[in-house]
Amino acid sequence: MAHAHKLEIFRGLVKFKSNTQKIWGVLIFLTIVTAVEVVLGIYKPESLMAKFIGMKILNWIFIILTLVKAYYITWDFMHMRDEVKALRRMVVWTAIFLILYLIFILLQEGGYIESIYTTGYIKTDF
Amino acid sequence: MSNTVVATEIEGKAWGGGNEPLKASYGKMMMWFFIVSDALTFSGFLAAYGFSRFKFIDYWPIADEVFTHVPFLHGQELPMIYVAFMTFVLIMSSVTMVLAVDAGHHLNKGKVTIYMFLTIIGGLIFVGSQAWEWATFIKGDFGAVQTKGGNILQFVDTDGHRVALRDFVVAEHKDRTAHERKNGLWFVQEGTLPTYTVEEVVDGLEAHDNILVRTQLLDENGQKTILSRSESLKQLKNNGTHVVEGANLKENEYGSPLFADFFFFITGFHGFHVFSGVIINIIIFFNVILGTYEKRKNYEMVEKVGLYWHFVDLVWVFVFTFFYLV
């Protein structure tokens, strides 16, 4: 099977000579991202504790870094980069659309129930 | 796909499977669609976790205080270090897997064997670590008292450091022993009794001036509320029902019971995926050794289990974020 691998990441910023080399490159990148997450998680810088659209900036950073990791695992380890566009879109957009919908419904409702607990007549802390 | 065994007769036929509009074999495509559905299952769990967390946003346990243990380093508070290690192990085993797939493309049986073996080892280390993590979580560390309303009262010293029950409570002799089937009702079961009673905890608290009660409620800085000395005694005497040590599905010393429930359920379901992934990897590993794919001149099977294995890694990346970081 003469598989043609696309050997560049970061939109062509980093190019690799072979597929093996690309794998190690992606590993280094994922390790750096994880290390950043762990360091931020341990030290929790005070400046990132401010709220931004209902959540701490730090939590937004964690979620964005997670999505970055997920992208490189799917694209380079699972070879999504080398699949045809139709397969890529079938898998990725279906999942993303349904997951966003699920998250929206559940988090919205969770927030609503919390507001009933805090401002309504139901006493929880006794 | 021209050199696969099956594709010789149907090649080029529009009907009957000869066409591959997505340039991927049937098996690989189905693995992708299975992964999509499994991803939705996991998102359902994680979103349900998010739901419960938003519901109790001011009462949720702080993960940094729960997962602080590292094997062989007793009594040290090292939040996240061990989970970071586990994450790295899983990413590393993903790398060896993708290297095995790559070696498969070059029909290099020796390299595929080595990399598959390393992948299996990585998976086993991960499952073992998770078992250890569970054991530590179930055993607990500090102990707490549960109130009538199902809330948890923890104990801290005046500097805000956690204090374990064993450090200030003295267990007295008790007449009540744990009920066992052999000397009681055979159809009734009882778990282990807590080491201390609430009365003993009250005595201990009264004897130590420097110990205070900490409630589940988070203040505006994201820290748990610490009660004053008189409030501590009042809260414990009026509302304490029993001592909780460690965690199970009904109660846990860390806070909301839902926290432990979701922890067991989501990491358990993920651990089950890792376990089944290891089993499938072992099967493929033996097939590689036996030369099944060598004869087929095609290592696509390695690629398919590889997809599953990477997916397990992918899920862990999210579990890591939502359980330990956020």
Provide keyphrases for this structure:
heterodimer, A: 126 residues, mainly alpha, 2 domains, two-stranded antiparallel ribbon, 3 helices, B: 326 residues, alpha+beta, Four Helix Bundle (Hemerythrin (Met), subunit A), five-stranded antiparallel sheet, 5 strands, disordered N terminus
Average of per-residue pLDDT values of chain A:
86
**Which class of the largest domain in chain B in CATH terms?**
Mainly Alpha
Q: For the CA atoms, what is the radius of gyration of chain B?
A: 26 Å
Structural class of chain A: mainly alpha
At the fourth CATH level, what is the homologous superfamily of the largest domain in chain B? Cytochrome c oxidase, subunit III, four-helix bundle
Distance between the termini of chain A: 67 Å
**What's the helix-strand series of chain B?**
HHHHHEEHEEHEHHH
Which structural class fits the helix and strand makeup of chain B? alpha+beta
Radius of gyration of chain A, CA atoms, in whole angstroms = 20 Å
Overall morphology of chain B? elongated
**Count of helical segments of chain A?**
3
The count of β-strands of chain A is 4
The largest sheet of chain B, given as strand count, sense and whether it forms a barrel, is:
5 strands, antiparallel
Percent helix of chain B: 55-70%
- Looking at how many chains there are and whether they match, the oligomeric state comes to heterodimer
Strand content of chain A: 5-15%
- CATH fold description of the largest domain in chain B: Four Helix Bundle (Hemerythrin (Met), subunit A)
Biggest sheet strand line-up of chain A: 1-2
Q: What is the average of the pLDDT values of chain B?
A: 88
